[in-house]
Amino acid sequence: MKKVILFAALSLAITSCETGKPEDRKDEANESTMKMSMASLTVDDEPVFIPKDTANRMIESFLNSVPVPERDSSLASLIINADSLRAYLNDTSLHITNLKIMLAHTLEYTNSKDNGRYAGYRYKALTAVLAGYNSSGNYVYFNGNGVMDNCGPCPDHCPTIGTAQGNYFPQ
Fold first, then answer.
1. Are the C-beta atoms of residues 164 and 15 closer than 8 Å to each other?
2. Which spans in 46-119 are helix H?
3. pLDDT digits (tens, 9 = 90+) for 5-49
4. Which residue range forms the structural domain that includes residue 120?
C-alpha cells in the first residue's frame, strides 16, 4: 500500500491540472514489456517505472474520488523543481538510495488558525516534503539540514503549454 501511495503522490507531482479522460488504454501488453525492461530498477522488488496508460488509470481513479463540489479547489498535482531535485540526488557523497515523499500542509496553512485541521484536498493547503534516505534507512539532508518543499500546487502552478498541462499522459 505504501508503494501505491508513493507512486500516486509522485504521479501527481509530475502531472498537471486539466481534466478529461485518457483516450486509449492498452496497458496489459505495455505493462509486461515495461516490467521486463525495467526489472533492474526496483524499490522493494516492484517496478519503478510503469506504462503511462497504467498511470493514467491510477490518476483517473484518484481524481474521480474527489467529491464533485470540491474538484475546482482540490489539488491535482505538485510541481517539483527538477534542478533542485537533481542537485540533491546527484550529490554522490550523500549516498541516497531512495526518496521519501511525505504529504504535508503548506507553511501558510500551518501558520494559520487552521494548523492541524483536516484540509481535504485543498491545493492551497497541501504540499509534499521530500527527503532522501540511505541504505541504512537514515535520512540524508541537503547541505546538512535541508529537505525539499516548494512543490508548486496545480492548479495555480500548472504548465499552460505542452503535454504537461493535462492531468493525463497523452496516448
1. yes
2. 52-65, 82-89, 107-110
3. 444 444 444 433 334 444 444 444 444 444 444 444 455 656 578
4. 2-165
